[in-house]
Amino acid sequence: MDILSKIKQADLVGRGGACFSVAKKWEAVKNVISDKKYIICNASEGEPGIVKDGFIIEKYPERLIDGIKIAIDFLSLDSSKIKAYLYINNKYYKKYYKKLSQSIGNLPIEIFVKQSGAGYIGGEESSLLNAIEHKRIEPRLRPPFPTTSGLWGCPTLINNVETFYNVSLVNSGEYRNSRFYTIGGDCFNNGVYYLSDNFTIQEILEKTNNIPDFPFFVQVGGNASGEILNSSQLKESVGGAGSITIFSLEKYQNKKFIENLLEFFVNESCGKCTPCREGSFRLNEIIKSEKVDWQLFFDLIENLSETSFCGLGSALAAPIKSFIKNVYPQINEKY
Amino acid sequence: MKNIKIKINNKEIVCSSEQTIMQVAKKNNIDIPGLCNHSDFSVKANCRVCVVEIIGRRNLATSCSTKVEDGMEIKTDTERVNKARNLNIELIFAEHIEKCPNCIWRVNCQLLDLAKKYKIKINRFKDRKSKRKIYKFANAIEIDGSQCIDCRNCLDACSFMQNINYLQLVGKGTTQEVVPVGKDGCIYCGQCAVHCPVGAAQEQTHWEMVEKALKDKGKIVVAQFVPQISASIGEEFGLSYDKNSTSQIVSGFRQLGFNYVFDVNLGADMTIKTEAEDLLKRLIKKEKKLSMFSSCCPAWVKYVEFYRSEFISNLTKARSPHINNGGFIKTYLAEQLKIDTKKIIVVSIMPCTAKKFEITRQELKINNNFPVDYVLTTRELAWLFKKNNIEFGKLKNSLVDSLRNNDNITNVCSVNGGVMGAVLCKMQDLLCDEKKIINVLDFKDVNGLVGVKEAKIKIADKILRVAIINGIGNIKQILDKVEDYDYIEVMACPDGCVGGGGQPIPTTFEIRQKRLISLFGHVVK
């Protein structure tokens, strides 16, 4: 069975957070006729609270590189027509440079270190194209999608570290429908765990011995963009890039929690579009004001998810809305 | 390209599939507002004002960037759309520190119009840009960061259109700001200004000084203007392109209180004569370098001086028409009328922002006087008319004052090639006895370079290789093969002065073509 059929059979989805079908992406890039194609392994891991890609690079660099090599072979047998980049944050680069270089050997894979200051948006797939092209780091208009017109206008396959790792497993018949979970926050056994991908949050916390003995809530799928759930909502599976962060209710059930989230988004907004640049700034102003105009606050949040240019802007809505709805509904009356 | 059917606000529309929603809407008189979209540039989709609802899609879509698809149902005025659009306009409005009373954009401000039209709440947010700097480039252009709405049109104009790259975007999020690269390097073409929706990039205005001079009884204030403004000023008053607006402009000047109103034909004749003699010297007597470059576009001259100084001696020393004209007014006319030169204020009205810089050049002084004192852009003139309730379009016709006894001596010949055509005619005059008129230069587009045309022309026994460049964006490719040409005319703005940085807003490709037709009676090829 060829690799594409294997990926289809395993029903692999992207592990960068968007859960897009891997087979569809690979086919899209394969089907474009072009003299040059690129592959990018996204190892920027900019979402706070998630360290599983770093974990994979540390423990299984040869698996990761094998996954990229499989993609190279899949897209072209002529090595002059294909090049891969391993786009990696500076911290991981410093730590794992040697290991990665050894695994890469003579393969056409270049390690590209994410610029300092590239920030959160530097991990977004069209922004990282700009980063590699040394352009201003911000998202590109889509369509065209990177699969047809990516790096320097060429078809480009962009997948996350864990996705390439999974491809390697699928290829050798070792994939067992598991994924990496980063567990952190107010818990005793934080770390990265490799468990079945259909476990609920509850099951994962139980299996890793992380059920708190104090009132708590969780943020799932990243400490910036992840949804926030209370302790009675743990029957769901884990979305996004697979993280569970535990927060003590006593410590974090307050307005400051929203302020911290907003602070993050204000600092990370690239500035391209109005709702994100101005909206997050005004939200931050409003939440810090003495008398919060909640109507305007929610209008701005709604506007961000409705009209922002890229996923970063719309990602702001989920944690704030879910925090207020699931954890802190009384906030409206309090302020 | 195939025809498809879509619906906008329940109205069925047949259109081609290559268009965006905004383009189709515009063609069908459906208004979708937008601030960052400009047809001279590729779509940015930054401002998020042009959002619409597409039935079946989860999020709102920006109509500037979304292509129509067969069967698409679009709503432009649902509650959801209104809410999002209005909030984004409000956020943008809060970025912009209003300096409306003395802002010449006021009469034509896209942001102010939208705020009024949609009854935007304008005081829920505090100004956040009050501490932003104003960057002044010589006396011609300024970038006022406190008025900027982050649409980035100025960057597109400076980089993608003009390839000058003097403006850059620094910082991110709310700290992002358009700033100049280094202290010098602006060529003052004003394309940033003519593409700015809110006047954050604009000319440094001279209208205040002109107004003051007009009120001063001790001054004789003279207006002189070029044809390119008569091709465009009507736009400011919603008038159709009318070739006769020249006589209305004259009448408007008189109402504003100018003592004399001249065209610059005499100055142009002087430019042409000097330039033709210069070319002759270079070509036949080989006294100076070929190729010869025209020099009546001050943005181009600044470009050569700053970026390609190895070519300075290629520039003809001929002064530009309005400088010659101003010099003539301040010497010959002053003497004829027995007026003290110091009392004469010469105001040039130009489609151009770089002319403001040009008039300050020391080397142009005559008897220690600057030939021209102030330059008003077409926009500033329209502003003065509006400010003084002069209803352009309802003015009586008036003729320009005459600068010479017999006005038909030197009107060389009407040619398509602008200055170059006239110079070549003059050359013909100087070289040959027979009066042969060159009517059309057979220009051909240069491969792949927008705004670049070349021709070969025989004058006496010489074959001249000439090129005309309208729009400085492609100049590098021409300068790389400069030895292929004997004579090069460069106008820094796209489509030449009709697309000048001082022209009315909007200025787009289509509008520039209309101005050309109005000016020459046909499209100049």
Question: How would you explain this protein's 3D organization?
Answer:
The complex is a heterodimer of chains A (335) and B (525). Chain A is α/β, with parallel strands linked by helices and 335 residues long. Chain A folds into three domains: 169 residues, Rossmann fold (3-Layer(aba) Sandwich); 65 residues, Ubiquitin-like (UB roll), CATH 3.10.20; 80 residues, de novo design (two linked rop proteins). Chain A contains 15 helices and nine strands. In chain A, strands 6-5-9-7-8 form a five-stranded mixed β-sheet. Chain B is an alpha/beta fold and 525 residues long. Among the domains of chain B are: 89 residues, Ubiquitin-like (UB roll) (Roll); 85 residues, 2-Layer Sandwich (Alpha-Beta Plaits); 134 residues, Fe-only Hydrogenase (Larger Subunit), Chain L, domain 3, CATH 3.40.950. In chain B, helix 2 crosses helix 3, helix 9 packs across helix 11 and helix 9 crosses helix 14.
Please give a handful of descriptors for the protein shown:
heterodimer; A: 335 residues; alpha/beta; Rossmann fold; Ubiquitin-like (UB roll); de novo design (two linked rop proteins); 3 domains; five-stranded mixed beta sheet; globular; B: 525 residues; Alpha-Beta Plaits; Fe-only Hydrogenase (Larger Subunit), Chain L, domain 3; 16 helices; 31% helix
**Mean of all residue-level pLDDT scores of chain A:** 96
In percent, how much strand structure appears in the residues of chain B?
15-25%
Number of strands of chain B: 19
By CATH, the topology of the largest domain in chain A is Rossmann fold
Mean pLDDT of chain B: 92
Uncertain parts of chain B: 406-416
Helix content of chain B: 25-40%
Q: Just give the CATH class of the largest domain in chain A.
A: Alpha Beta
CATH architecture of the largest domain in chain A: 3-Layer(aba) Sandwich
Largest sheet of chain B: 5 strands, mixed
Rg of chain B computed from alpha carbons, rounded to a whole number of angstroms: 24 Å
Structural category of chain B = alpha/beta
CATH architecture of the domain at 273-317 and 411-499 in chain B: 3-Layer(aba) Sandwich
Helix and strand composition category of chain A:
alpha/beta
Oligomer: heterodimer
Q: What gross morphology of chain B would you assign? A: globular
| SS summary, helix count of chain B | 16
| CATH topology group of the domain at 273-317 and 411-499 in chain B | Fe-only Hydrogenase (Larger Subunit), Chain L, domain 3
Question: Which parts of chain A are unreliable, with pLDDT below 50 for 5 consecutive residues or more?
Answer: none
Largest interface: A-B, 32 and 33 residues
